[in-house]
Amino acid sequence: MASFKVLIAIVLLVEISWAKPNGNKVDIKIPKECDKDGFCSIKPEGYDALEEQINSLLSPHLISAFSDRIGGGPTAELSPESDWHNCPYVRKLDSSYTFLYENLTKTDLIIQTKLLSQTIESISCAEEKIASDGQQCFQHLGLGAFNMKSTCKTSTAKRTLLAFDVDAGKLIQKDFDIPCCCTCSITRT
Fold it and tell me: Which pLDDT does position 12 carry in this prediction?
C-alpha cells in the first residue's frame, strides 16, 4: 500500500513538472527602438498580458535564484576622470525586456515581473571620452616610441538570465554576453 502511494506521488510530480500553460499565446510587439542588436529596456506591447502567464510558471526557487541581485533602478555613471589615463568606462544598471541577436532574426524575452526583477549591470567603454589618436590608454607611458599602439575595448562575460520561450510557452535559463569591463589592449604597430 505504501509503495502504491509513493507511485501515485511520483506520477503527480512528473505531471506537474511537465505541465504546460493553457496554450493562450500572447501577441508581443517589439518596439522600433529595440530593432538594434543587444538588450532593450523598453517594455514591449503585450508584455503585461504575458506577465500573468509568466508569474504562474515561477517557482519560489526560481524567484530566489534569479531575483534582483544588484538592487536599485536604472542608472548610468561615468568612471572618475582621474582614471581616464586608462580606459574611461560607463557603468549602467538597467532592467531589459528583450535581447535581439546580431543576425536580427530572433528576439528573446527577458523575465521582468513584479515577482522577479533581473537588473543587468553592464560596464562598457565610454567611447566619447577616449582619445582618437593612436594611444587611447596609458598615454603617459609613451608606447608610440616602442612601435606600440594602445586601444580601449569592451569585454563581455556570460550571465545566466531567466527568459520566456514564446513558442514553447515556458521559462528557460539562457546565457547572455554582457559587457563587463573596458580593457586596454596594447599591440605592435
Answer: 38
- In angstroms and rounded to an integer, the radius of gyration of the C-alpha atoms of the chain is 23
pLDDT of residue 159: 93
Number of domains the chain contains: 1
Q: Are 143 and 150 in contact (CB under 8 A)?
A: yes
* Three-class SS state of 63: helix
Predicted confidence (pLDDT) per residue in 13-30, tens digit: 444 444 444 455 668 888
Helix H or strand E encompassing 171: strand 170-188
- Cell matching residue 57: 510558471
User: Which phi and psi (to 5°) does residue 94 adopt?
Assistant: -155, 155
Report the range of poorest mean pLDDT among 46-50, 82-86, 112-116, 131-135. 131-135
Q: What is the pTM of this model?
A: 0.73
CA dist 65 → 62, 138, 160, 172, 183 (Å)? 5, 40, 11, 13, 30
Residue 124 lies in a domain: yes
Which CATH number characterizes residue 123's domain? 2.10.90.10
Residue 10's SS3 state is helix
Note whether residue 3 is domain-resident: no
